[in-house]
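From the pipeline queue, job 12 of 40. The input is one protein chain; the requested action is below.

Action: predict structure.
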Amino acid sequence: METLLRNLLLIPTTVVTVLVFGAVIRRLLGVRLGLLRTVLAAVLAFLVAEPLLRALLPESGQTDLGTALLFGALAICGASLLAMIVLVIAEVIVPDGSIPGPVELWRGWRTRLARSRRYSQILRIAVRHGLGRFLRGWRHTGLESSTSRHELARSVRRAMDEGGVTFVKLGQQLSTRRDLVPAEFVQELTNLQDNAAPIPWEEVEKVLTAELGRPVEDVFAVVDQEPLAAASVAQVHAARLPGGADVVVKVQRPGIAQVVERDMDILLRLAHTLEVRTHWGRSLGLTNLAGGFADALREELDFTTERDNLRVMAAALDTSACRGVRVPRPHPELCTERVLVMQRLTGTPLATAEPVLTALGDDERQRIAATLLDTVFDQVLERGMFHVDLHPGNVLVDDDGSLGLLDLGSVGRLDGTTRMAIGRLMAALGRTDSLAASDALLELVDRPEEIDEREMERALGVLIVRYTSPGATTGAAAFSALFRLITSQRLAVPPQVAAVFRTFATLEGTLLIIDPQFDLVAQARETGRGRATEALAPQRLRQAAEDELAALLPVLRRLPRRVDRIADAVEHGRLSVNVRLFADSRDRRVITDLLHQALLTVLGAAAGVMAVLLLGIRDGPQVTESVELYSLFGYGLLIVAVVLVLRVLIVIFRRDPT
């Protein structure tokens, strides 16, 4: 019974001791470490302390109390130092956070298993299409020719097509980034089609019932079980509400959100790996590119976002001067994250609307194209919210010449400063003013630390002359030339500005279907000149002056007092200029951390040297019968030196010092 009681008391004592060891070790190292490795280090210290104490005590075991306490403290310090050394070595070999803990392993083993299977599938697809050699990070000199680049682009397109919805949509987005992707890849990736086999009506009905909370027949009077269109994310069915209104029901495919999330996780990891291991990955900035794509795709999967976009766009078109353009109005009470019910617009998709356009006549076709372009300019320059994918399948034309815009799942949004810069760029192009165009372009992009503005101005002037002269080749060639100019000057295009370029690059093909003689660049130049003229109208100038005066009024009120103070200080010789070094707290933190590390290093080295000197002194004062005072100080300073050095090393070896 006594033995059992002793064992029961030993367990909580051991646990408390281990926790104390762990807390002391983490405190001495001065950084946050993983709980598991800290506990293991504390257990090691607990197990080593007793054998170390036995080694320090005389073999006879006869010693006085003071010596025993000193040796006990020395054994505890030695065991703690050993545990700290093990932690530093572990941080060097396996940094904290580089491998998941047991809890994460237990919770996420299914996710990792599914991801591993998908990894294997993606790698097999890449190897099957001849892309495996590019994943090793080697430089391949056989890709300088246009033919070899075309072959590689074709392989990439086929691999993305086989990879599924996430990679198809990634390829479609890359096809619009002419500033990042070579022309051969743009040409191939444009051919990616987001088509999929339709899912059975039974599965669609389950999604509708689950999302709407009631049977389908209670919500709709009629639903066409044959889809109007089927894509990889959703499919669309025609329906009619009990009140008689014709609607379109967009239903998300079951399980597609989980598939996209899994693929996005893999894509982000793959982008990070390629950016680290390959030169072309670093030059493209794959991690940021993949992150922006992931955000856009997740937004597209939430149909409530498209519902809100439709409502905002419909309100903007109602107040716009451009008439004859519509978007379907949603039924908010029937919209969820996976179901979108909206008005069914009448009309024919532009891809098959040639008979309708022919019946309207050439003049009407030119008017329709100009109306669509003016609508996009109004969205970009005035509203700050615009349709980013106006390909012919997303534009309907009715028999009366009115247009309908579809698929607003992903729209572009611009802040006021960016809209003003785009307006100034258009106005400068209209005036063929290369200097003003250069200034506006630099406001739109992320400029590098060093840039030859004079050279960029010359190049932009040549581009303006080449593509704005009467009879010049316009359209896609002008956009390609602008992208090449941006790339050659090492200018980074923000995603929202790239979305504007993408919109106009896609819009050109749509406008040429409406009117084969339509000149996008010339019309854009005229629109820019017209909007600049509108901005100089007396009413606009008066409003702008009033706005500026309202913003400057508080400053003007304080200006006389400040001028008087400065004049008084100059008159009495009290004027001085204060410059605050390291005003930013982040700069101060960096300098402080460096000073702390340097100070700890110096103190650790000094303590180590003093410890060696003290331990080398013999016949000093005795603290106890077997312990000398100099030896006690020497061992104490040695412990301090080791602790300080370990604090410096653990910060150096950690990936994230904070």
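Job complete. The longest helix spans residues 538-571.
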